[in-house]
Amino acid sequence: MDNQTSHADTIIRNHMLWSMGAGFIPVPIADFFAVSAVQLDMIRQLCKVYNIDFQQTQGKAVITAMTGSSLARMGARVVKLIPGVGSVLGGVTLAVLSGASTYALGEVFKKHFETGGTFLDFDVERLKKFYNEKFEKGKQVAEELRKNQEKTETSADQSDVITQLQQLAKLKEDGILTEEEFLELKKKIIPSMV
């Protein structure tokens, strides 16, 4: 893999994560605009990597044409409106779909630019099938990223608990805390791990 492709892959992955974060915005229209803004920024950065003149108006048009027909995204927004479960379930679903859409869009532009394409010869209809294929793969990639993020957060929480317990033990050892104070504070820290 050459440096240009590697750089493009990093840009796509980072913007995918940002899109997934925007998918958790609890206001249905706000999340759409936030994801679109992230995608437009991704295209701008990919243009720099491939030395292509970025054209914002055409970038917006391509985003709309490629991603606008995704009825699944609209369905996830509707789920968000259901009180309680809808905001969490819909947010997770929309986060994955937003990430998948960003992944697919990035892959389309990467392929187009790597084969010598520019904004002037970007054919949405020709690239739509490739976008749909990459969207399906993007759902898997986004779900893996989401799961890895949850594991990282859990590991960080557990690491924080261990650090707090070590600090408490040191305070007890130094005679700053009594045995009773140590046990009381320990009870407050350990339930947060569960």
Percent range for β-strand residues: under 5%
Low-confidence runs: 71-91
As a percent range, the share of helical residues equals over 70%
Structural class given helices, strands, pairing?
mainly alpha
Principal-axis shape: elongated
Q: For this entry, what is the oligomeric state of its chains?
A: single chain
Secondary-structure element pattern, one letter each: HHHHHHH
Major sheet summary line: none
What's the domain count? 2
User: How many β-strand runs?
Assistant: 0
Rg, please?
A: 22 Å
In DSSP terms (H or I, runs of 4 or more residues), the helix count works out at 7
Q: How confident overall, as mean pLDDT?
A: 78
Write up what this structure looks like.
Helix content is 80%, strand content 0%. Mean pLDDT is 78; it is low at 71-91. The protein folds into two domains: 3-149, no CATH class; 155-193. It has seven helices and no strands. α1 (3-22) runs antiparallel to α2, α2 crosses α3 (56-67) and α4 (71-80) packs antiparallel against α5. The protein has helices at 3-22, 28-49, 56-67, 71-80, 85-114, 124-173, 179-189. The longest helix is centred in the last third of the chain and has 50 residues, at 124-173. The chain is mostly helical and 194 residues long.
